[in-house]
Amino acid sequence: MMPHRYIKKILSANVYDVAVETPVDLALSLSKRLENNILIKREDLQPIHSFKIRGAYNCISQLSDVQRACGVVAASAGNHAQGVAMSAKHLGIDATIVMPNTTPDIKVNSVKALGAKVILHGDSFAQAYTYSLTLVADHGLVYIHPFDDEHTIAGQGTVAVELLRQVEDNIDAIFVPVGGGGLIAGMSVYIKYLRPDIKIIGVEPEDSCCLKAALDAGERVILPEVGTFAEGVAVAQIGELTFELAQQYVDEVITVTTDELCAAIKDIYDDTRAIAEPSGACAVAGLKKYIEREQARGQTLVAVATGANLNFDRLRHVAERAEIGEGREAIIAAQIPEQPGSFKRFCTALGERNITEFNYRYANEGQAQVFVGVTLKSEEGGRERLIAELSSQDISAVDLSDNEMAKIHIRYMVGGHAAVDNEVVYRFTFPERPGALLKFLNKLGQPWNISMFHYRNHGSAHGRVLVGMQVPLEDKVTFEGYLDELGYAFNEETDNPAYQLFLAPESR
């Protein structure tokens, strides 16, 4: 399809029966701190707190009378589901939403409140999607795609129409979160048509970067695993139509970490008092990374805040990780003598830095390993400076700030080394639903002994568990074959320095 056809579709997109024109706010604190003019397009202020209402309504409003009579169906665990439900209700159309069993009750209830029928099926989006297609085949329902549809893309493109009209200054770059690509496809084709000088930069989480992988490969690829922290953009493969447009009109893609997303959520809150969902904060996280990389100063940069449907239970996790993502906290493992006064000498070595966390348990009469959180100030240097200063005081320290296992599990488990033979350690991710932990234990619990176990609910659709198992070396291949059969995503962590320093048997 030629670009001008998309331009016509975007300009004629019918979205304002249900959507609203959202403001562009100046992020005053962020602008001052980063020495740039930073603007936020507030799509979190839509009636469903997400831009998805635009594409869903434009797509459904284009249906013929015959199609409307059939009813619509969509597979979604989040914002698209609410967009379809609200749009169908406004137009008097029956809507069915297939959601994974792992979908939090707050999202299920939100969709039901909008008048849609909800079917819970499977433990993943892929399973829900497959089932939704059977409803299309068996009952003639019309499927409303969340991103890979011309009308959906055009509806999302209306964000760009508003943005260029609202911002009178010259814009240097616009940062757009990417999941399946509907938003960045619609925005980029319109902006590049009118303002080819503006950079369009996609932003994806490092563990679900389907557009970046496709651009690097020159073709659409399927990610073998997809991270779920930013579930709104957790897509394994970029759309076919959206990839075609992204190849032509997107300048680059920046990837961000979970910690950087948490820091961006805090940044948005500080400037707007709105709590963005992780996918909604993607653009701000990428914008900050771009400024640091380019050493940009005095530019006008726009981030699209795409949504604010965050489960309240996840706020604790976000708050814990935000300071690390901002570079204002380091997590370290330090070795100090097991003798009176050692802790005081350690604090003295830190200088004026504040300790935010200190975990320790007596293990032996020699050296003690402590798990420590330390605040960092820009004028005091970063993590490398901290480690170097401790080393100069003859304190051995290991930086664990980027160690996911340490941040999710070890910080809550510091309790000394156990006398356990043949222990191997694995980190698992499994669908979070009623009875999921018991099901996981039932599958895992035989024939090898569980020697260590840590699980903590983070308010997300997936539970995360750290497990120690007693597996003799000669059983290792058989054991991993058994894990493959379980069907849960897993990574071995036996050699992880955090485990070795705090929990591994001392004989290792």
The description of the largest β-sheet is: 6 strands, mixed
CATH topology of the largest domain: Rossmann fold
Q: What is the general shape?
A: globular
Low-confidence stretches: none
> What strand order characterises the main sheet?
1-2-10-7-8-9
Mean pLDDT: 89
Per CATH, the class of the largest domain reads Alpha Beta
Account of the protein in words:
It is a single chain. The strands form four sheets. The protein has a six-stranded mixed beta sheet, sandwiched between helices. A four-stranded parallel beta sheet has the order 5-4-3-6, with helices on both faces. The protein has a four-stranded antiparallel beta sheet with strand order 12-13-11-14. The mean pLDDT is 89. The chain is of the alpha/beta class. It has four domains: 3-51 and 150-323, Rossmann fold (3-Layer(aba) Sandwich); 52-143, 3-Layer(aba) Sandwich (Rossmann fold), CATH 3.40.50; 327-402, ACT domain (Alpha-Beta Plaits, 2-Layer Sandwich); 418-502, Biosynthetic Threonine Deaminase, Domain 3 (Biosynthetic Threonine Deaminase, domain 3). The chain contains 20 helices and 18 strands.
Topology, pairings included?
Elements lengths: L2 H9 L12 E3 L1 H7 L2 E6 L9 H10 L3 H6 L1 E4 L3 H13 L3 E5 L5 H9 L3 E4 L4 H15 L2 E2 L6 H17 L6 E5 L4 H13 L4 E7 L4 H8 L22 H10 L2 E5 L1 H15 L9 H13 L5 E6 L9 H11 L3 E9 L4 H8 L5 E5 L7 E9 L7 H10 L3 E4 L4 H5 L14 E9 L4 H9 L4 E7 L6 E9 L5 H11 L2 E4 L4 H6 L6
Parallel strand pairs: 2-10, 3-4, 3-6, 4-5, 7-8, 7-10, 8-9
Antiparallel strand pairs: 1-2, 11-13, 11-14, 12-13, 15-17, 15-18, 16-17
Helix pairs in contact: 1-8, 1-9, 3-5, 3-8, 5-6, 8-9, 9-11, 12-13, 12-14
